[in-house]
Design brief:
Layout (H helix, E strand, L loop, with lengths): L11 H6 L4 H10 L6 H14 L9 E5 L6 H11 L3 E2 L6 E2 L2 E5 L6 H11 L10 H14 L4 E5 L9 H18 L2 E6 L2 H7 L2 H6 E5 L7 H13 L11 H11 L3 H17 L7 H6 L18
Parallel strand pairs: 1-6, 1-7, 4-5, 5-6
Antiparallel strand pairs: 2-3
Helix pairs in contact: 2-12, 3-4, 5-6, 11-12
Length: about 300
């Protein structure tokens, strides 16, 4: 007779962790795992389509826009995991289909080129001119068969002067025109401002949005998935409307904050030996919502 599953609220991986030490479970909870929700799958599918695009005169590009901490970078990192560099055993040449960099804190072309070369692990002279670095990048893109360049935090573009912004946008155009790589630029809503002042840029980059979440069945489904993966010994029923709404309100509709809140609630349940997330714990856990973090001040010591 098959042994009854004592933890039907958990998936296989979480059940494998359930008898581990508290610290091991806490480590696993903090580590987290990929969440394949509908918008994430849609964006990944679009990126796969772009990666397979033939090299044509004007390559299609994508502008991924999302509020801060709403899953944008996680999607990009997931895509990178699916398309890692590969060493060609015949030619000893590293094949690198996708390169991902963060945009500089301001539109500095030399810094941008250096970041790309660093990701390609290519030696270069720090004193080299931007044109020298660009020539090296074009040569490496050909040798390594780079097909997509991902630029995260593209909203940093608006941190510079109008001239610097224009120069940086022209640099992106040149990379696209001369290397025939697809570009995926990603950032907060300010990314629209960075691109819309140039009609050519706004026409080259098709926008994809990750809006703030709503307190609906899809959000409840994400919480249910998180519960399946969280090694607590008792069910929490996070998709229950009351629990779901409380978590939604405290995270203010941001996916990253919702995930972090559930993690902290689960860790609190382990440490307090309750092994369950309850309405009381959701409402009482010390948690500073995203909208108040900029104004948050440490309380005066008593």
């Amino acid at each position: 007779m098959a042994q009854e599953n004592p933890y039907p609220h958990l998936n296989e991986n979480a059940r494998a962790l359930i008898l581990q030490s508290d610290e091991q479970r806490i480590y696993a909870i903090r580590k987290g795992s990929w969440l394949g929700y509908a918008d994430a799958k849609r964006v990944l599918a679009r990126m796969e389509d772009l990666l397979a695009y033939p090299r044509i005169t004007r390559m299609p590009n994508m502008l991924l826009v999302a509020p801060s901490y709403n899953g944008k970078t996680s999607i990009l990192e997931r895509f990178m995991e699916l398309h890692q560099s590969d060493l060609d055993p015949t030619g000893e040449v590293t094949i690198c289909p996708v390169v991902m960099v963060d945009a500089p804190n301001k539109p500095d072309i030399a810094d941008f080129y250096a970041r790309i070369l660093d990701k390609l692990m290519a030696p270069y002279k720090p004193t080299a001119s931007p044109s020298e670095k660009y020539s090296q990048i074009k040569r490496l893109f050909r040798q390594m068969d780079v097909r997509m360049l991902i630029i995260d935090e593209i909203h940093n573009l608006i941190a510079g002067s109008t001239n610097r912004q224009r120069e940086f946008r022209n640099t992106l155009k040149s990379i696209g025109n001369e290397t025939k790589v697809v570009m995926v630029a990603a950032g907060t809503e300010d990314a629209y401002n960075a691109f819309n002042t140039d009609p050519q840029m706004s026409s080259r980059f098709t926008p994809e949005e990750l809006p703030l979440w709503k307190a609906n069945n899809e959000f409840g489904g994400v919480l249910a998935t998180l519960e399946l993966r969280t090694p607590l010994k008792k069910p929490s029923n996070l998709k229950d409307p009351a629990a779901m709404l409380s978590i939604y309100n405290r995270s203010e509709g941001t996916l990253g904050d919702a995930c972090d809140l559930v993690k902290e609630l689960a860790i609190d349940a382990i440490r307090k030996k309750t092994e369950q997330i309850t309405m009381d714990s959701i409402n009482s856990l010390r948690w500073v919502p995203p909208s108040k973090r900029k104004q948050y001040k440490r309380p005066n010591p008593s």
